[in-house]
Amino acid sequence: KFVEQIKNPVVINYNSIPHFPISTVEHHKGKLIYGTIKGKKILAMQGRFHYYEGYSMQQITLPVRVMHVLGIKYLLISNAAGNLNLKWKKGEMMLIDDHINLQPDNPLRGANFEVFGPRFPDMSEPYSKKLNNLLVKIAKEKKVKLNKGVYVAVMGPNLETRAEYRFLNRIGADAVGMSTVPEVLVANHMGLPCCAISVLTDDCDPDNLKPALLSEIVAVASKTEPRLTELYVELIGRV
Fold first, then answer.
1. Residue 68: its pLDDT value, please?
2. d(Cα 164, Cα 84) in Å, to the nearest integer?
3. Using CA atoms, how far apart are residues 105 and 215, in angstroms rounded to an integer?
4. Which residues does the chain have with pLDDT short of 50?
5. Cis ω on the peptide bond leading into residue 157 (within 30° of 0)?
6. What is the pLDDT at residue 236?
7. Distances from the Cα of 39 to the Cα of 5, 42, 77, angstroms
8. What pLDDT is stored for residue 28 in this prediction?
9. Tens of pLDDT, residues 103-116
């Protein structure tokens, strides 16, 4: 519903854009929306692509390349993720400070296009300190709880076993998901500042693990969505 904040929207279906993949996941509408928020020009992807859908990493990240060429200055990402940090609760949000990539492929594999970026891009600061600091400040001002932590990306589409949740927690992850990292890799390759917020939609406590239902995950995400929208709308106004 973030797109409801966009003024004078121009809506383009993914299937009308040459070479764009089509989102196959329920609740991902498959639309590129251009307009303004707080006087800033923005492009919004209503629906993203995932490796588990069968697309290549290059296909998944093509929209980020396209948006960069069109002139975007910042990339703001959101996702739904499983909560591995037992100090937090589902329904809360996590600002991604760093990530662990356990996906089996990389969008930068293959021939490097120097026009976009270097062969071996640095990842010492994958998420913009400027954007993250602004988000922390905005969250405090608006009294919105915003945890900060490490996101681990896995292939999916299955959720994890109890042993896998223990493993992910032990290697330093606070939240687990199946997206975001490919887009962040490509953004860093092009020198495009980015930030990402996870909505923690289910608790991944291996000692008290219950089946995660898609309907419940969507319900939690929908309940948290207004707070996420509030943070990103304010961020757009300040950058």
1. 97
2. 11
3. 29
4. none
5. yes
6. 97
7. 12, 9, 20
8. 61
9. 999 999 999 999 99
Q: What is the per-residue pLDDT for 212?
A: 82
Rounded Cα gap, residues 75 and 93, in angstroms: 18
Look up tokens 């299937």; give the residue. 15
CA angle 76, 95, 75 (to 5 degrees): 10
Euclidean distance between CA atoms 57 and 109, whole angstroms? 9
> Do 150 and 99 meet the contact criterion of CB atoms below 8 Å apart?
yes
Q: In the structure encoding, which two tokens stand for residue 134, read together? A: 């602004």
pLDDT at 99: 98
- Measured CA to CA in angstroms, residue 208 lies from 154, 174, 211 at distances of 22, 17, 10
CA atoms of 237 and 94, how far apart (whole Å):
21
Q: What angle do CA 102, 103, 108 make, to 5 degrees?
A: 115
Distances (CA, A) of 163 to 80, 149, 159, 166, 172: 21, 21, 12, 5, 15
Residue reference for tokens 């939240």: 175
Q: What is the C-alpha to C-alpha distance for residues 119 and 23, in angstroms, rounded to an integer?
A: 29
Question: Own/partner pairs for 24-28, CB < 8 Å, 24+ apart?
Answer: 24/53, 25/50, 25/53, 26/214, 27/218
C-alpha distances (whole Å) from 82 to each of 68, 102, 169, 217 are: 29, 15, 11, 9
Indicate the length of the chain as a whole number: 239
What's the CA gap between 158 and 152, in Å, rounded? 15
The tokens describing 15, both together, are 């299937």
pLDDT at residue number 228: 96
Residue found under tokens 């196959």 = 24
Angle at 125 between CA 36 and CA 113, to 5 degrees: 75
Tell me the two tokens of residue 21.
Answer: 């993949």
